[in-house]
Amino acid sequence: MPADPSARISEAWDGPSSGVICCFGFDAGGARALAEPRLSAEGAGEAWSWTHVRLGDVRALALLRAVRNLPAEALELFAASESRIQIGEEAGWMFGVLPDLERDLSGQPQGPGRLVFALDGARLLTGRLHPLLAIDDLRRAAQLGERLVTPAGAVVAHLQFYVDRIEQVIDDLAQQLAGIEDYVLTEPQNPGETGLSALRRKLARQRRELQALRSTLARALARGRRGERLLGLTDEFAELIAGVEDADRETGVLQERGRLLHEEVDTLINSATNRSMRALTIVSTLLIPPTLVTGAFGMNLKGIPFENSSGGFAAVVVLCAIVVGGALFVLRRLGM
User: Fold this and answer.
1) Among 262, 118, 91, 266, which residue's Cα sits nearest to residue 180?
2) For residue 20, what are the CA distances in angstroms to 110, 165, 316?
């Protein structure tokens, strides 16, 4: 009888250099770190196992190809750079792509990320291309002994961590928006330099993620209510949808505030432009009469007044001043 391919891969396990980020075994007492990934359905004393891999490593993909009964569609999600949030089920496995937040070395969110997962009753396989926040939160929770009864429960916990992280991001964006509001309402000299456009772009990006997750969970919940198995996640998905909808509503409120603030900024910019144009109009209007006077006296013709007078220049200057003063008086009377 041929050997179990997952066992052959297990023999070559050499820690982080193999593309495996972490692996845990779970039982009634909690989680414990495994010395090597356990990819078979039969655990050695554990109720189920979790293996988390780095998708950029070809050895991690070889490890996943050795998993028995893993559907080809699930394996394709691990191998391809799929960005569409989705959940599917086939042959006793549930698999798909879930949202997460990429992070930098300091642990700060850097934008949307993707986590690929596949699970059955005894195994949870996850993979990511870049470091992610929510899945790292789940890993730390496992290391601290949090009880995760089933692989499906771990996926739910990951989504709850994701929603918590999104709410933190939304709170940060709300504080930034409040600061921009305070700045704009002081009628600053440069209302266009507020950073509002970048903040609105971040809000739109986060809301797209939340709406995509809500739609995916709603479709999965509808399938579960029609009698499809979904590994007992129907009730958990209903609670998650409520949390995602709350975050989506809050993001929508911030988007509306950002839109109104953008209109306020446009109003301030238009007002500043109008003031500048008004000043230029007044200056141009005041300079038109002196231009006509100097043009008339500048003609090289005989009979021009003060042609031979030594005080002609002073007289023309006085005349220009009188004309400008008269034009200014008329403009003031007109309310300009």
Assistant:
1) 262
2) 23, 24, 91
Of the candidates 97, 119, 148, which is a domain's last residue? Answer: 148
Q: Are 138 and 164 in contact (CB under 8 A)?
A: no
In a domain, 231, yes or no: no
CB atoms near residue 7 (< 10 Å)? 11
The answer to whether residue 87 is domain-embedded is: yes
pLDDT confidence of residue 234: 64
Range of the domain at 309: 279-333
Q: By the 8 A CB rule, do 46 and 25 touch?
A: yes
Give the CATH number for residue 101.
Answer: 3.30.460.20
- pLDDT at position 45: 60
With 0-12 CB in 10 A as exposed, 13-18 as middle and 19+ as buried, what is 26?
buried
Name the nearest CA neighbour of 286 among 326, 316, 317, 318.
326
Tokens in use for 168? 């933190």
Residue 216 exposed, middle or buried by CB count within 10 Å (0-12, 13-18, 19+): buried
Tell which residue, 89, 108, 116, 122, has the closest CA to residue 223: 89
- Determine the length of the chain: 336
CATH of the domain at 318: 1.20.58.340
pTM above 0.90, yes or no: no
Chunk the chain into consecutive blocks of 10 residues (it has 336) and report each block's average pLDDT, rounded to whole numbers. Answer: 42 56 83 81 73 90 88 92 88 91 90 93 91 94 84 91 94 93 79 83 94 91 64 71 93 93 84 79 78 74 69 77 79 72
151 membership: H or E segment, kind and range: helix 151-185
Q: How far apart are CA 323 and CA 321, in angstroms?
A: 5
Provide φ and ψ at 22, rounded to 5°: -160, 160
Whole-number Å distance between alpha carbons of 136 and 141: 8
What is the count of structural domains for the chain? 2
Query: What's the pLDDT at 14?
Result: 42
- Among residues 101, 123, 148, the one where a domain terminates is 148
Does some domain include residue 47? yes
Query: Does 167 reside within a domain?
Result: no
